[in-house]
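tool_call: predict_structure(chain=1)
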Amino acid sequence: MHGRCLLIALLLCSLFAPTSSLPQSHALPPPVGGITFEQVIRLSQSGLSDAVIIAQIQKRPQPFNLSPDELLQLKDARVSNNVIEAMMPPSSAPAVANPVATTTASQGDADDPLADHDAGIYMYYTTSSGKHKLVELEPTVYTQGKSNGYFATAVTYGIAKIKWRAIVRSPHAAISTVDPNAVFYFYFEEKGAGLSHSSFNASTSTPNEFTLLHFDVKKDNRETIVMQMNAFGGQTGSQDNAIVQFTSTKLRPGAYKVTPSASLRQGEYCFLTGQSFGGFMAGAASANRLFDFGITE
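tool_result:
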């Protein structure tokens, strides 16, 4: 009798044992936030195909909320247009023919380089208070003013060079910044046309047709050499030590970002189109235009 009661008790215990003792399947790990902005850049620079990167982007629960500065950072990192479009919300991606084109939200911001702006050259810089500003460079008239070297050329039988100088009749530009890492944006009225039909030659259509020059500042003016000639031939263009190298990136038809290859040291600068050198040839007008600015302490 006692054995039977013990057997019944064991059976009841096995029937009502806690379910936690039963084997359970392993739960799937919770979903993570997905690929990050920095990871998109690293994957693109590693050489992976767009399809692989986009597949990772599509795993995100929410699309990226890209700012204009982030769009520019992606283009500078050479992330493809297809990948950038995949990062944007579906409602806005189809409207972006180029991923850094103007968005509706940015059209009213005068300091946004991706917004629509009048044709011209603009300087984009950071103020001492940390704010970003976009300011148009106004065209400034320069004159031939003077040339030198005639006597030296005569006494050296044409070996010494005659130098023509472009002179601006003021020691400092009206627009300046303390930011040595300022960048520039060129906006053209239409593809294949000049910055504007009234301010520059209509055949000028890309920043590559301009030269960025460092001025030699005098007491009352700024000047730079634009042409040299002796008895054996002439050379148009500025001296190498005055030329500042830069790179240009096409953002969309008619819009370019121009970045100096190194930080700009304190001084006076200008953008001058190569076609302006024609103003120093025989029979040409004695004045032309340039776009000047300064870098201050």
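agent: Residues 18 and 24 are 13 Å apart (CA to CA). Proceeding to next step.
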